[in-house]
Amino acid sequence: MPEAFVSGIDDQSRHKVIDLLNARLADMTALTLAVKQAHWNLKGPGFIGVHELLDDVADRLRDGQDTIAERCTILGGQAKGTVEVAASESSMEPYPTDMEAIEDHIVALKDRFLKVGEMIRKAAETADEAGDPDTEDLFVEISRQIDKDCWFIGANGKQ
């Protein structure tokens, strides 16, 4: 295993948290790609606003991915952020590739943001239980952004 750049966290906890980080990295990668899939293919009233919003959301998701991956390597692990790992390890439902209607994309994305947000919050609890408050804080920060972006996306849907 590569060198760790932290102290005060036992090896068993570090390994547990590294696995946890990689699991959520897979979800974040899958979610980012789902957002881009919608961005590229949506059509309908309000197109430009949602299209541009999804570009911004994808950028924020990539920032979260980067933060998770870097924490993995700081803890002495390997970040596993390939599309292949995301496809096989993500807890998120596969995103449909045949949708066009904005409303359908909004519903599909909102559902996935809710699921990933829940998984990120559970990861925060697990990191806390493992004795890694820094990783817990990282997940809390990411969950706030996931929730906010879920709101931004969902507010475009039918009332």
Number of strands: 0
CATH topological fold name: Ferritin
Our Rg estimate from Cα atoms comes to 16 Å
User: What's the structural domain tally?
Assistant: 1
Main sheet specs? none
Average pLDDT metric: 96
Structural class: mainly alpha
CATH top level assignment: Mainly Alpha
Percentage of β-strand residues: under 5%
Please tally the helical runs, counting DSSP H or I stretches of 4 or more residues: 5
Give the N-terminus to C-terminus distance in angstroms. 51 Å
Helix percent reads over 70%
General description of the model:
The protein is mainly alpha-helical and 159 residues long. The protein has a single domain (11-154), classed as Ferritin, CATH 1.20.1260. The chain has helices at 11-41, 47-74, 83-89, 102-129, 133-154. α1 runs antiparallel to α2 and α1 packs across α3. The longest helix is centred in the N-terminal third of the chain and has 31 residues, at 11-41. The chain starts with 10 loop residues before the first helix and ends in a 5-residue tail after the last helix.
Topology of helices and strands:
Elements: H1 11-41, H2 47-74, H3 83-89, H4 102-129, H5 133-154
Properties at a glance:
mainly alpha, Ferritin, elongated
Structure at a glance:
It contains 5 helices and no strands.
